[in-house]
Amino acid sequence: MKMKRTFSALLVVLALCGVVGYSSSAYAAGDTPHPPKQDWSFSGMFGTYDKGALQRGLKVYQNVCSACHGMKHLRYRNLTALGYNENQVKNIAAQYSVTDGPNDEGEMFERTAIPSDAFVSPYPNEAAAKYANNGAYPVDLSLITKARHSGSDYVYGLLTGYSEPEHGVEVPEGKYYNKYFPGHVISMAPPLSDDIVAYDDGTPTTTEQYAKDVAHFLTWAADPYMEDRKRIGLRVIIFLLVFAGIMYAYKRQLWADLH
Amino acid sequence: MGSGQREKFDNPVVEWVDSRLPVFTLMQREYGSFPVPKNFNYFWNFGAIAGVMLVTMIVTGIVLAMQYTAHTDLAFDSVERIMRDVNFGWMLRYMHSNGASFFFIAVYIHIFRGMYYGSYKGPRELLWILGVVIFLLMMATAFIGYVLPWGQMSYWGATVITNLFSALPLVGEPIVTWLWGGFSVDNPTLNRFFALHYLLPFVIFAVVFLHVWALHICGSNNPEGIEPKSEQDTVSFHPYYTIKDSFGLLFFLVLYCLFVFFAPDYLGHPDNYIPADPLVTPAHIVPEWYFLPFYAILRAITFEIGIPFTDIVFITAKLGGVIAMFGAIALWFVMPWLDTHPVRSARYRPLYRTFFILLVIDFVALGYIGSQAADAVLFGLPLSVMGLICTAYYFAFFLVILPVLSKKEKVKTLPNSIHDAVLAKNKSHS
Question: Are B246 and A11 within 8 A, CB to CB?
């Protein structure tokens, strides 16, 4: 009997290892190193976003990244989640103008952006974006931390991973060496350097801090409901565990007469 | 159904309905007093669990379909809209995407349980075959469903898998064009995939109904693999198994919800958060984890079959892979006739048990190999060679080992009855 128990347990463990093993091993390939794990406030079962970091990250995005990268899945009204009130969000939106229309006369027109507008993209379309960037397309960043392996760590690694070429990698004119970019040759010039964005909360204005904050902000942008998800999830798990416990006790009692 | 003797119900409304359409009698008979072997272990929970997952998938899927747009220009964004702007849309979508994985986990355990305890053997052959049909329909539905978000893996997965049909001689190319509704995976493909993804779950539901019907004709197998002989061997389905299944289901749902709420993208692929781009091929095109063992079998066949020393090829490597992959599942259909050994349960067939455990390990290994790049190397061994060895064992198990064991294998002494087996087990425990 013991053998059979062991076998059953073994089978279940095997099956689970299979599932977990596949998904973690499936995508580790190529010679690009894994970006080192950073300490994020949103990691783990109880992790939450840091509103200060989110606001600073937005600032870095607005002042640096948004020159080339859009975030079309976000709307200005979403920024209330960063701790801004409605007036502040209105003011942020008002910094941008969008093309609207057609109006009564059939003309398209420019107007100031309002909170319900999507984040304004820097280029009208992909072709224009490529044309302005030597043929390289600055991807939309709305989902970037979900669309890359080890998302937040990757963004941080990439932004701080610029250096002189290593391991004999040939870097063509107008391209750059980056330790964590697949293939190491990246078209984006190092976007961050110390003191390029002013912070008003006393946080150090270093490249590392900018990278950390903007990665934090981009993680929120890709997964804005993470805090709700974990909060609801915790209740769901506790409910299921208690319910399962009751059913187990009931099951034992019910079956006790039979055994 | 419905004919024969009927007991009167006390409740007048129930009685009024039941005398005209005996649904209450049916439920009472099939799920109330239905006699079930009393020695099930927890592996027997997974049929019920799979059923619940199917319903979960249909319910979340219908609500998602109300918000989804099946157009190449809009599909990706419409999924993001569900994630961001639809009330609890993120929860629905994560329940659906992880639900597919957990449906497959339940069904794989259910299938391998059936193999271990000989549930495919007579008189349950048709029950087993209907189960394999369900599995095939699930694979089709899951594959098509993964295409709908129209990310990079959706697009390239669809391209690779539909292209498999081009390996068929003569009719291959026209079939692929017909499947696509054009000359590449494009809007007509996405549109028909959506239509089929809505249709197939209901087909699955219908076949599940037949599967359960067939189960209730011949009754459940059990870990001893012997038929119940007296009332001592069975208990009524309710409350004994309704309660046990509830506990098993709730425990399973805990694992499922851990993924839904705490690691919702873990089983997915990051590339599918990049919108589909026909001009950029991802570095590795990997199917979802539940297809990996079969994907490994597909890729294991890298040689042609023809007349040696000539250029004549009967079966190209690609066609060989396709035949092997579909053959790997097709073998399940004939399993009741490949294994004709009179004893069902592996508990009493030590050799079968050993070879079966090896098969499970082999299957998991194939899954691992399927997840890796085609030219990957593990401990100095090229994985392509290991893939071929594992594929060979897989086929040898069904085509050689089962028939040989059917004739040769000596068995341990079977218990007289299920009741005796349970008594013996309790004795050894105390």
Answer: no
User: How is chain B split among helix, strand and coil, in percent rounded to 5?
Assistant: 70, 5, 30
CA B428 vs CA A5, A113, B38, B224, B425: distances in Å: 13, 77, 18, 16, 5
Map out the domains of chain B as residue ranges: 38-227+237-267, 288-410
The contacts of residue A43 (CB under 8 Å, 6+ apart) are: none
Which pLDDT band, with edges at 50, 70 and 90, does B53 fall under?
very high
Buried-exposed string B255-266: b where 16+ CB fall within 10 A, e elsewhere: ebbbbbbbebbe
Q: Which residue of B has its CA nearest to A46?
A: B262
Contact criterion met (CB below 8 Å) for B105 and A15: yes
Kindly tell me if the per-residue pLDDT of A30 is higher than 50: no
| pLDDT mean across residues, chain B | 95
A146 Cβ under 8 Å from any chain B Cβ: yes
Phi-psi region of B155 (alpha: psi -120 to 50; beta: other; left: phi over 0): alpha
Average pLDDT over residues B96-101: 98
Residue A129 carries which side chain, given as an amino acid letter? A
Residue A26 with chain B: CB contacts under 8 Å: 269, 284, 286, 289, 292, 371-372
Q: Who has greater pLDDT, A166 or A100? A: A100
- CATH number for domain B38-227+237-267, candidates 1.10.10.10, 3.10.105.10, 1.20.810.10, 1.10.10.60: 1.20.810.10
Residue A210, min C-alpha distance to chain B (Å): 24
- pLDDT digits 0-9 by tens, A83-95: 999 999 999 999 9
Residue B222 has pLDDT above 60, yes or no: yes
Q: Do B367 and A15 touch (CB under 8 A)?
A: no
Task: Enter the DSSP assignment of A164.
Answer: S
| Closest CA of chain A from B174, distance in Å | 33
Domain edges within chain A:
32-74+118-248
DSSP A134: T
* CA dist., res. B340 & res. B279, Å (int): 52
Contact A241 B254 (CB under 8 A): yes
B116 close to A22: Cβ distance less than 8 angstroms: no
Which residue of chain A has the CA closest to B40?
A255
Q: A87: number of CA atoms within 13 Å, CB side?
A: 0
Judge contact between A240 and A246, C-beta under 8 A: no
Question: What CATH number should be reported for the domain whose range is A32-74+118-248?
Answer: 1.10.760.10
CA pair distance B192, B195, nearest whole angstrom: 5
- Is A133:A68 a contact under the CB 8 Å cutoff? yes
Contact by Cβ (8 Å): B83, B90: yes
Query: Each residue of A54-66: pLDDT tens digit?
Result: 999 999 999 999 9
Chain B partners within 8 Å of A247 (Cβ): 243, 246-247, 250
Rounded percentage of chain A residues whose pLDDT exceeds 90: 82
Window 8-37 of A: residues touching B by CB (8 A cutoff) are 8, 11-12, 14-15, 17-19, 21-23, 25-27, 29-30
Nearest residue on chain A to B94, judged by CA atoms?
A: A229
Q: What CA–CA distance (Å, rounded) separates A49 from A219?
A: 9
Q: How far is B239 from chain A (nearest CA, A)?
A: 8
Q: Where are the beta strands (DSSP E) in A114-253?
A: 176-177, 185-186
Closest Cα in chain A to B261: A233
